Amino acid sequence: MKLVTRAAWGAQPSKHSLAYIASTLGVKVHYEGAYVPKSLAAADAHSSCAGRMRDIQASHLANTREDYSDIAYNAAVCPHGVVFEGRGLHRRTGANGSSTLNSQDYAVLAMLGNSGLVQPPDAQLDGLVDAIQWLRSGGAAGKRVRGHRDGHATSCPGDPLYAWVQAGARRPDGEAPQGGPGGEPVGGTAIARYQVTVNGLPYGYGATGAHVTAVGTALVKKGFGRFYAVGPGPEWSDADTRAMQAFQLSLGYKGTAPHEDADGVPGPVSLQRLLGTLPGKATTATAPPYPGRSAFILGKTNPAVTVLDGGLVRRGFTRHHAGKAYAPGPLFSENTRLNVRDFQRATPALAGAADGYPGPLTWRLLLS
Ligand SMILES: [Zn+2]
Ligand SMILES: [Zn+2]
């Protein structure tokens, strides 16, 4: 395999630190979904492929709506079959469509379009298999290979590449991708090492805070203290994951492999069952004054929208920003409006007129 490292193609540093991920169930294949010139596949055009990587990364870093930390893909493969390191091994992708989907699979981009260059050259298919094997051997990717459209509403990775995925993601000579620990980390028992955010607070391996100590303490109280050699403490360790897993199994949850229901990484339901309440980031007791309807005009920015976004994030109404590192910002986007509408629909006093535009009552109920 021909691998071009980030340094070699001139990557910019990540904007935010990238989430560590120990293993995945597999790899999802993507395409660019826009016009890609056929000339990119010419034998003498490879010298422009590194520049294309820089352009893709720059466009992701400039995408304030998605607030990507880096190029969204773990790797990309040019038409000449060369593999470019993206986020790389053991880094959670931002490309699959939701935080769950991003934790389940790595993402590999084929430099291929929905017009112009639409058929993957043989060399590119070889390169895609190289990338998949690299993610398996170095990143503990599991055996499945899927398309972005599996489980998410998108045409990606386009019909030709999707047909190739469905036929087994084989090399042009018919050889299937090799290796793959089947979702288990290499050389050890599978233990989930990813994080989730519940009500604004992080849980899972490496998460820190007083709320982590509170979870451990509650687990000990419920009789799951045998997993702790030391602690519990404010940094989420494998001991916390194992104790939480035993608690989830006691609730009747099934599936102990990473990303299954009883993998020891809590969701809102198991946390509530454990703690009796769902902790959240400290909220302000009273809402700031309503800024007026003119603060919320689609496509326009206003400082009040950042405050509004903060309330949406705290209360977990971020579905329409799903899967992205979503940070509150001043733009009143269509996604923001849809998140507000979800909040209104879920709030009996507001459900009758849920249009996604915050009036004084929406503002007060969301922010107090
Ligand atoms: Zn895609
Ligand atoms: Zn190339």
CATH architecture of the largest domain: 3-Layer(aba) Sandwich
In the CATH hierarchy, the third-tier topology of the largest domain is known as: Lysozyme-like
Attached small molecules: zinc ion
Low-pLDDT stretches are 182-188
* Class from secondary-structure proportions: alpha/beta
Q: How far do the termini sit from each other?
A: 56 Å
Rg for CA atoms: 22 Å
Mean pLDDT: 89
- According to CATH, what is the class of the largest domain? Alpha Beta
Counting structural domains, the number is 3
Write out the CATH superfamily name of the largest domain.
Peptidoglycan recognition protein-like
Question: What would your notes on this structure say?
Answer:
The chain is of the alpha/beta class and 368 residues long. It folds into 3 domains: 3-166, Peptidoglycan recognition protein-like (Lysozyme-like, 3-Layer(aba) Sandwich), CATH 3.40.80; 195-275, Orthogonal Bundle (Muramoyl-pentapeptide Carboxypeptidase, domain 1), CATH 1.10.101; 293-367, Orthogonal Bundle (Muramoyl-pentapeptide Carboxypeptidase, domain 1), CATH 1.10.101. The protein is 32% helix and 11% strand. It has 11 helices and 10 strands. The protein has a 6-stranded mixed β-sheet. A two-stranded parallel sheet has the order 3-7. Helix 6 (210-224) crosses helix 7. The N and C termini lie far apart (56 Å). The structure holds zinc ion (2 copies).
